Amino acid sequence: MAWLDLVPVGIYLLLLLTIGWRARRPHPDENEFLLGGRSLTIPAFVATLVSTWYGGILGIGEFVYGSGIVAWIVMGLPYYLFALLFAFLLAGKIRQAENVSIPDMMQRHYGRRVGLLSGLFIVLMTSPAPYILMLAVLLRYFFHLTLFNALLLSAFFSTVYVYWGGFRSVVQTDKLQFLFMFTGFVILILFLSRVLSPAEMFRRLDAVHTSLRGNLSVQNILVWFFIASWTFIDPGFHQRCAAAKTPAVARKGIVISVLFWFVFDSLTMLSGLYAFVLLPKIEPIMAYPTLASTFLPPFIRGLFFVGLFATIMSTIDSYTFLSAMGIGRDILFELRNNKSEQLSTLYVKFGLVLTAVVAVIMAWFMPSVVQLWYNLGSLFIPPLLLPILGAYLPGLRLRPKATLLLMAGSFALGLALFLWGMLHTQQNMPHYPLGLEPFFPAMFFSLLVFALTRRQNVND
Questions:
Q1: Lower CB density within 10 Å: C or N end of the chain?
Q2: How many CB atoms lie within 10 A of CB 10?
Q3: Taking a C-beta distance cutoff of 8 angstroms, is the pair 398, 457 a contact?
Q4: 3-class DSSP assignment, residue 460
Q5: Mean pLDDT of the region 64-81
């Protein structure tokens, strides 16, 4: 990095901490600290939802560089479809329900044991470890830091303002990060198009990168498509809908967000394809940083780096906060008999510190971000999808005992098959019984329990 590149980075960090500090409220109650007083307007809703959804930006570059336009088929299109379904089926109901979180909602409808189990799942799902690792990798790349120091800086700068102001600080800083993430990639595409026109770049792509299947099997594409149903169980979606000013804000905000996701997906896909054509034989996960280092001048290069930082940090702060809510509000607080809103906030702050520390430790062992998304979706969508839908759609709701069996059994089956695959590899790839990815047996178990217990409920 040239010294001019440090100027936008320094301005960004200063703005981030200043905005996060000024967003805090003195002596916030639970509703204020966890949901910002349920006052999100459409601009704030869109900025925080759009920016939070893209923390795995290096994973997107890795996917596009290795597989081509199929990345949009599996990581763009299905998410738009499920997001729109979420908007029209659930968004308004979530705002009207006045729940604090997914486990809070699950406890109200299915009882304490289901609420606690879902709280544990949420903590595991929302660990910011892979995103902290990504940010640390960038810091090492740009500033030649040790991995340990880079991890500490990543965790600190992404969570300190959340500790100060809770959800309101997350939203206010996400507005800044939304602006930088789009600006960074627009700048990159403008400079790359001067080196090579998009039309010429597409002519130089090979058959794999222009194929709608890429190098993925049909089964892989199907799993990726169903993993997009993660939208229905994503705590970030639920939190932002619960924090919206009105049900209409939640619905309209998601629809508008889909348009911004399409634009950003177009920018990131073009950038990844440019990297494949212009920079063969680089490390795929570093496609975007290497493009910037090679083709952008000083200061402009720094602006793009800020865009990468903002894209990742906007997810780290949200996921750290969601995981902290799971630990502090939905598990530790619920296990106490003597409850108060002040105690709830203190537990969430304790959860923030614990989440950051554990995430730094876990970051040493994280694999590819793309594979992590795939595995987490396979493990947690089957046990959570139907119970969450049932909570808001009474026609799909099961009794508490049946819901507990569905969740525990589906997760246990998926985890057992996943571990089996890790222990039985062929050519360094997991080999599962009957060649089925864990998602399908786990989802089948979930649907089977649902069908049998639903039929029993009707007969009763």
A1: C
A2: 12
A3: yes
A4: coil
A5: 92
Q: What domains lie within the chain, and their CATH numbers?
A: 3-366 (1.20.1730.10), 368-460 (no CATH)
Give the dihedral of Cα atoms 426, 428, 430, 431; nearest 10 deg. Answer: 0
CA distance 323 to 357: 12
Calculate the CA 328 to chain-centre distance. Answer: 20
Backbone phi, then psi, for 34, in 5-degree steps? Answer: -90, -30
Please choose, from the candidates 238, 5, 253, the residue with its C-alpha nearest in 3D space to the C-alpha of residue 126.
238
Neighbouring-strand partners of residue 426: 429
Instruction: Report residue 215: phi and psi, to 5°.
Output: -105, 25
Tokens found for residue 417: 């098959």
> In this structure, are residues 160 and 20 in contact, taking their beta carbons and an 8 Å threshold?
yes
Give, rounded to a whole angstrom, the gap between the first and last alpha carbons of the chain: 69
Closest CA to 393 of 227, 232, 240: 232
Give the tens place of pLDDT for each residue, 83-142: 999 999 999 999 999 888 999 999 999 999 999 999 999 888 888 888 888 888 888 888
Q: Tokens for 325?
A: 């809510």
Percentage of the chain exceeding pLDDT 70: 95
Please say whether the beta carbons of 274 and 196 come within 8 A.
yes
Distance CA 15, CA 340 (A): 34
Which tokens sit at 149? 């120091």
How far apart (Å, rounded) are the C-alpha atoms in residues 287 and 272? 7
Query: Which two structure tokens, joined as six digits, stand for 231?
Result: 């939208």
What six digits make up the tokens of 70?
A: 């199929």
In a 3-state reduction of DSSP, which class is residue 198? Answer: helix
Largest CA distance in the chain: 73
Instruction: Give me the residue label for tokens 């595991």.
Output: 124
Query: Which stretch of DSSP H or E encloses residue 84?
Result: helix 77-86
